[in-house]
Structure to design on (168 residues):
């Protein structure tokens, strides 16, 4: 057991988590990307069932905060992504929070990298909840469009990629 209640082994990272966005946590300085899911980007909006839009990215971040707030989070490491973040399947009180984000329509099954949550996504889609209440652009398409816009607008096509959250 390390300081501040952090347990870390080659397979499990545990402790209290700070939510970065709808699919990323920080556990004592280690960024953990929830493996197998992709939540809307923080600034992303999604279509409503009848008319208008809602702040689905902010809602995903809020949902993950509610699931983890003040609780011990246990993440089973699944390797690392191309940004060096630990990929993890994370649990609070034995409950798979990756699955819960998909089940409640706050994230997509990230089928490009994993088929783990495809069935769970199908259930949310059938219930037309969250991101499934209307036609919505998946987060990976949203990010790609933002990147293309940044490249076009950048001097000499030299766009700089970065994420800015409410905390900077």
């Amino acid at each position: 057991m390390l300081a501040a209640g952090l347990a870390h082994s080659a397979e499990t990272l545990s402790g209290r988590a700070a939510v970065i966005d709808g699919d990323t946590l920080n556990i004592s300085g280690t960024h953990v990307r929830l493996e197998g899911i992709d939540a809307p980007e923080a600034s992303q909006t999604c279509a409503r069932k009848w008319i208008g839009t809602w702040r689905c990215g902010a809602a995903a971040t809020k949902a993950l905060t509610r699931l983890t707030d003040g609780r011990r989070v246990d993440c089973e490491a699944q390797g690392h992504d191309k940004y060096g973040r630990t990929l993890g399947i994370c649990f609070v009180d034995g409950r798979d929070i990756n699955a819960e984000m998909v089940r409640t329509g706050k994230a997509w099954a990230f089928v490009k990298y994993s088929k783990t949550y495809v069935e769970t996504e199908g259930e949310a889609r059938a219930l037309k909840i969250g991101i499934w209440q209307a036609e919505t652009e998946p987060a990976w398409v949203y990010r790609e469009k933002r990147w293309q816009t940044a490249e076009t607008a950048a001097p000499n096509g030299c766009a700089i990629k970065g994420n800015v959250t409410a905390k900077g």
In short: Residues 42 and 57 are 4 Å apart (CA to CA).
